[in-house]
Design brief:
- The complex is a heterodimer of chains A (about 450) and B (about 400).
- With about 450 residues, chain A is an alpha+beta fold.
- Chain A is built from twelve helices and ten strands.
- Chain A has a domain at about 305-435: Butyryl-CoA Dehydrogenase, subunit A, domain 3 (Up-down Bundle).
- Chain A is about 45% helix and about 15% strand.
- In chain A, helix 7 (about 305-340) packs antiparallel against helix 8 (about 355-380).
- The radius of gyration of chain A is 21 Å and the shape is globular.
- The relative contact order of chain A is 0.14.
- In chain B, strand 2 (about 150-155) and strand 3 (about 160-170) form a beta hairpin.
- Chain B has a four-stranded mixed sheet with strand order 1-4-5-8, covered by helices on one side.
- Chain B has about 400 residues and is of the alpha+beta class.
- The interface between A and B is large, with 59 and 48 residues.
Chain lengths: ~450, ~400
C-alpha cells in the first residue's frame, strides 16, 4: 500500500488538515446567510430531498476493509498518547473559541452554523474511524480518541458537538460493519471535501424505549426490503442525505430475526422529516424520520445485518454519549467553581460554606468516577474486548450523575442558574439527553 | 496509552491473592465475627507466606507495607509504572473480598506498617523490619481533628517521654509496636505533631481495654495508655525539627498512601456483596442484561446495575490514586476522592444487597448482613466521608482551612 502511515501518526494527519483550513478565529459565527435551511421551531412537516445527492453504486471487489484492534499494553495507564493530546488540544481550542461563544446563537437558531460544521469536517473528525486504504486516517480502532474528542467538543457546547459528530457516526458504521460494496459506495464521499450530511437513527418516540425491541420494521419483499416506522432523535434530519436506520428485520410479516441496520438515501420515496425541537440539544436540529412503505434494495442491509453488529453499534453510541456527558459536566464543574468563589452572601464567598463546597466536591468526585469508567469501556472497545458491561456502567453513571451535576450546577447559582444569562440552564437541559439518547453519535 | 485493565504482570498475583482470600479469610469469616477478640490463629501461617513472598520479591506489595514511594528505583523517563501502590491496592481488594476484619488482623501488615513504609528513613526501615505496627492517632477528646492531639512527647536526653491516651487503635492488642502520634509542643500547633514507633515491650505502654463493635469484629480495637513511656529518639519517624512552614504535611503524607488502601477495602467488601446478591438474584430468576436499558428491566436488575456502576467508579478512582502514587504524581485529592466514593458506595451497596435478599440477607446464614456491618467503618476511619469531601473541596476551590472550615 502506497504512502502507508504509521497508525500512530493520526494526530499529524489531523493537524495537517487543520493547518490547511481557514484559521479558527476567522469563523464568522453569526453570519445569518450561512445558517441552515430550516428554522426548527417554526416549520412543521417537510419532505426530505432538499439536499439530495446520488451515491454512485459501486461493486465490491472482495472483503471489506476493517480497522485493527489496538494492542493490549498490559499496563494500567491514564496518559493519552501524544497524538491524542494533540488532537484534543486542537479540539479544546475550537470548543473554547468557537462552540462556547456560539452556543447561545446556535440554540436560538435550532441549528449549527454551516461554517462550524465545515470546520469540524476539515479537522477530519469524520475520518478517525475510516481505514487509510479507503481515504481515512486510521489503521486501528480509536474509541478512546473518539471519547476524548466528544468530551472536548461538548465542553464547548453539546448541541453543536452532536451536529458535528453525526455524519461521523454514519461513516464509522459503514466502516465498521459495511460490506466492501457499501464501503466503496459511501465512504469516498465522507473522505472528500464535501462530506455528506448523514444521521444514525436508532431511537423511537415512546416510553421505556429499548433499542433491542424496535417497532420500526423492515420486511422482505421480492426485490429487497420495505420499511415502516418512526425514528426520533435524528440529527439534522432535514439536511441529511444519508441515513443509517435500525429496524426489526422480518423475513415475512411478523417473523422477526432481531434488529438490524439499513442504509437509506434521503432521495428514497416514503421518507418524511418532521422537526422535533426538544428540551435541549437544539443546535443539533433534532427531528423525526417517518418511514412509510420505504422500499430499498436487498443490499441496503448494512453489512451482514447481524444482531451482534447491531449490539456493538448500540454500545459504541452509548459510549459517545457518555463522552459528551463528560465534557458538559466538566463545563458545569469549572463554571460553578468560579462562581461560588466570587459570589458573596453573608459577607463572604459562598464557597466558604460546606453545604456549597461539598456540592462542588461531589460534582468533581462523580465526574472523575464516570470519566474513568467511560475511558475503561472505550479502551476495551478498541482492544476488541467485550465491553457490554463497561458500556452499560458508563451509561448508567453518565446518565445518573451527569444529570445530578446539571441540576446541582443550576442549584449552586440559585436564581441566576435559572435564567439564560448563564449557560448552566442550557447544560442542565443538554445533560438530560444522556439517559434517553440512542444512536446519533458513535465512537 | 489509556488502558484501565488490571496490569498484565499482576494478574497472576491477583489470582493467587483471591485464592488465599477465599481459603483463609472467607472460610473463617463468620467464625471470628462470632468469636470477637479471639486470635485468628489461621493467619499466622498466611502471614509467613506473605513475608516469604515479600522477601523473594514476588509479593511486591502483598500487604499494607507495600506503599513506600521508593527513590532508588528511579523511574525511567516517560515510562509508566505499575508499582507497589497498585499491587498493594489490588491485593487489599482481594483480601477484603475475603474478609475486612481478618485483613486488618494480618500480622505485620498494620496501618502502622504503612506509616513506617511511607515516611521512615532507610535505616529505620531496616530496624523496624518484621515488626507488626498498629497506628494510634485518635484520642477520647477528638476524632477527625488530628491537630488537636494532646498526647505529649518530651525530649529527655536520647529519648522522648510519651504521655497520653489513644483510642480506636486497630490491632493495638495483637501488634508488637504502635505508631503513636504525639505533639512536641502543643503551642506550636500542627507542625509539632510527630509520629513515634513505640515497641509494646517498653515499660509505660499498656492496652487498657478492647472495644465491642458493629463490624470488623475479627479485628481487635484497643485503648492504649502511655504513662511516662520512654522511647528512643531514633524511633521518631521523619524529621524531629518543628517546621511551621511545612506544618502538618509530613504526618499527613501517610494518608495519601493509606487512603487508597482503605478505599480498596470498601471496594473488595462491596464486590463480595455484589457477587453474592447477583447469584441469589439469578437463582430467583432475575436476569441482568447490560445491553437493555435499566428501566426496561426489573427493579432489582436496575438496582443491581446502579450499584455495579457505582462500584466500578469506586474501583477505578482507587486504582487512579494508586497509579498516581506509583508514578510519583501528587495524589492527595484523588486519594480523598477514592476514599469518599468507595466509602459511601461500599456502605450503600452492602446495605442494599441485604434489602434485595430480604430476610435471607438479614440472617446470619448468609454473609450479606456481616458485610453491611463491616462496610460502615470504611466510611469512617482514615478520614470520614465528610473529611474527604472537605479535602477535595479545599483543593478544588483552592481554599485554606480557615476559609473553608
Amino acid at each position: 500500500m502506497a504512502n502507508r502511515k504509521d497508525p500512530m501518526g493520526i494526530g499529524l494527519a489531523v493537524l495537517n488538515r487543520i493547518a490547511s483550513s481557514p484559521a479558527i478565529d476567522k469563523l464568522g459565527l453569526r453570519k445569518a446567510t450561512e445558517r441552515a435551511v430550516y428554522q426548527g421551531a417554526k416549520s412543521g412537516f417537510q419532505v426530505a430531498g432538499a439536499a439530495n445527492r446520488t451515491f454512485k453504486k459501486r461493486k465490491g471487489s472482495g472483503d471489506p476493509q476493517r480497522l485493527g484492534k489496538t494492542s493490549d499494553s498490559g499496563v494500567f495507564d491514564l496518559t493519552p498518547t501524544e497524538d491524542q493530546q494533540m488532537i484534543v488540544g486542537v479540539v479544546e481550542e475550537f470548543a473554547a473559541e468557537v462552540l462556547r461563544p456560539g452556543a447561545d446563537a446556535a440554540e436560538q437558531d435550532n441549528t449549527t452554523p454551516a461554517d462550524v460544521l465545515q470546520q469540524t469536517s476539515e479537522f477530519g473528525l469524520t475520518l478517525l474511524n475510516i481505514p487509510e486504504s479507503l481515504g481515512g486516517l486510521s489503521e486501528e480502532r480509536s474509541a478512546v480518541t473518539g471519547v476524548l474528542v466528544a468530551e472536548a467538543l461538548a465542553y464547548g457546547d453539546m448541541g453543536q458537538a452532536v451536529a458535528c459528530l453525526a455524519p461521523a457516526a454514519v461513516a464509522t458504521a459503514v466502516s465498521l460493519w459495511g460490506s466492501d460494496a457499501q464501503q466503496q459506495t459511501y465512504l469516498e464521499a465522507f473522505t472528500g471535501d464535501d462530506a455528506p450530511v448523514a444521521a444514525l437513527a436508532i431511537a423511537e418516540p415512546r416510553p421505556l424505549f429499548d433499542p433491542l425491541e424496535l417497532q420500526t420494521t423492515a420486511t422482505r419483499t421480492a426485490t429487497g426490503w420495505k420499511l415502516n416506522g418512526v425514528k426520533s432523535a435524528v440529527v439534522r434530519g432535514a439536511a441529511a442525505e444519508l441515513f443509517v436506520v435500525s429496524a426489526e428485520v422480518e423475513e415475512a410479516p411478523g417473523v422477526s430475526r432481531g434488529p438490524g441496520l439499513f442504509l437509506i438515501e434521503s432521495s428514497t420515496a416514503g421518507l418524511t422529516i418532521q422537526d422535533d425541537p426538544s428540551m435541549g440539544l437544539r443546535a443539533a436540529g433534532l427531528s423525526r424520520l417517518v418511514l412509510t412503505d420505504v422500499e430499498v434494495p436487498a443490499d441496503a442491509v448494512l453489512g451482514d445485518g447481524s444482531t451482534d453488529d447491531y449490539r456493538e453499534c448500540i454500545r459504541l453510541s452509548r459510549l459517545a454519549w457518555a463522552g459528551l456527558a463528560l465534557g458538559t459536566a466538566k463545563a458545569v464543574l469549572d463554571y460553578t467553581k468560579e462562581y461560588v468563589k466570587t459570589r458573596e452572601a453573608f459577607g463572604e464567598p459562598i464557597a466558604y460554606r460546606q453545604s456549597v463546597a461539598f456540592m462542588v466536591a461531589n460534582i468533581a468526585i462523580e465526574l472523575e468516577g464516570m470519566r474513568l469508567v467511560t475511558l475503561k469501556a472505550a479502551s476495551r472497545a478498541e482492544q476488541g474486548l467485550d465491553c457490554s458491561r463497561e458500556v452499560a456502567l458508563a451509561r448508567k453513571l453518565t446518565a445518573e450523575y451527569g444529570m445530578k451535576i446539571g441540576t446541582d450546577g443550576v442549584q449552586l447559582l440559585g436564581g441566576h442558574g435559572f435564567v439564560k444569562e448563564h449557560p448552566v440552564e442550557r447544560w442542565y437541559r443538554d445533560l438530560r439527553a444522556i439517559a434517553v439518547m440512542e444512536g446519533a453519535v458513535l465512537v | 496509552m489509556i488502558n484501565l485493565e488490571t496490569p498484565k504482570k499482576l494478574r497472576g498475583f491477583i489470582k493467587q491473592a483471591n485464592q488465599v482470600a477465599d481459603n483463609f479469610l472467607r472460610a473463617n469469616s463468620r467464625k471470628y465475627d462470632l468469636a470477637e477478640h479471639e486470635y485468628p490463629k489461621e493467619l499466622d501461617l498466611l502471614a509467613s507466606l506473605i513475608d516469604g513472598m515479600g522477601d523473594s520479591g514476588q509479593g511486591q506489595g502483598a500487604g499494607a507495607a507495600g506503599v513506600r514511594r521508593s527513590d532508588d528505583d528511579e523511574l525511567e523517563k516517560n515510562k509508566i509504572k505499575n508499582g507497589t501502590n497498585m499491587s498493594s491496592v489490588l491485593s487489599v481488594i482481594e483480601m477484603c473480598w475475603g474478609d475486612v476484619g481478618l485483613l486488618l488482623s494480618m500480622p505485620r501488615q498494620g496501618l502502622g506498617n504503612s506509616a513506617i513504609a511511607s515516611v521512615a528513613t532507610d535505616e529505620q526501615l531496616e530496624r523496624f523490619k518484621g515488626t507488626w505496627a498498629a497506628m494510634a492517632i485518635t484520642e477520647p477528646s477528638f476524632g477527625s481533628d488530628s491537630a488537636a492531639i494532646t498526647t505529649t512527647a518530651v525530649k529527655d536526653g536520647d529519648s522522648y517521654v510519651l504521655n497520653g491516651e489513644k483510642i480506636f487503635v486497630t490491632s493495638g492488642d495483637r501488634a508488637d509496636s504502635v505508631v503513636v502520634w504525639a505533639t512536641l509542643d502543643k503551642s506550636l500547633g500542627r507542625a509539632a505533631i510527630k509520629s513515634f514507633v513505640v515497641p509494646k515491650s517498653l515499660p509505660g505502654i499498656r492496652v487498657e481495654r478492647l472495644e465491642h463493635k458493629l463490624g470488623i469484629r475479627a479485628s481487635d480495637t484497643a485503648v492504649i495508655v502511655l504513662e511516662n513511656c520512654r522511647v528512643p529518639a531514633e524511633n521518631l519517624l521523619g524529621s524531629p525539627e518543628i517546621d511551621t512552614k511545612q506544618g502538618f504535611a509530613g504526618a499527613m503524607a501517610t494518608f495519601d498512601n493509606t487512603r487508597p488502601l482503605v478505599a480498596g477495602m470498601a471496594v473488595g467488601c462491596a464486590r463480595a456483596a455484589l457477587e453474592d446478591i447477583r447469584a441469589l438474584l439469578e437463582k430467583a430468576g432475575v436476569e441482568i442484561d447490560y445491553d437493555r436499558p435499566a428501566q426496561a428491566q426489573s427493579a432489582a436488575a436496575a438496582t443491581f446495575l446502579q450499584m455495579e456502576a457505582d462500584w466500578e467508579a469506586a474501583l477505578l478512582l482507587t486504582l487512579e490514586a494508586a497509579w498516581l502514587a506509583d508514578n510519583r504524581k501528587p495524589n492527595s485529592m484523588e486519594a480523598s476522592m477514592a476514599k469518599a466514593k468507595a466509602g459511601r458506595v461500599g456502605n450503600d451497596i452492602t446495605l442494599r444487597c441485604v434489602e434485595l435478599a430480604s430476610t435471607l440477607g438479614y440472617s446470619e446464614t448468609e454473609l450479606l448482613e456481616k458485610w453491611s456491618r463491616d462496610s460502615k467503618i470504611l466510611d469512617i476511619f482514615e478520614g470520614t466521608q465528610q473529611i474527604q469531601q472537605l479535602i477535595v473541596a479545599r483543593r478544588l476551590l483552592d481554599l485554606t482551612s480557615s476559609q473553608l472550615k
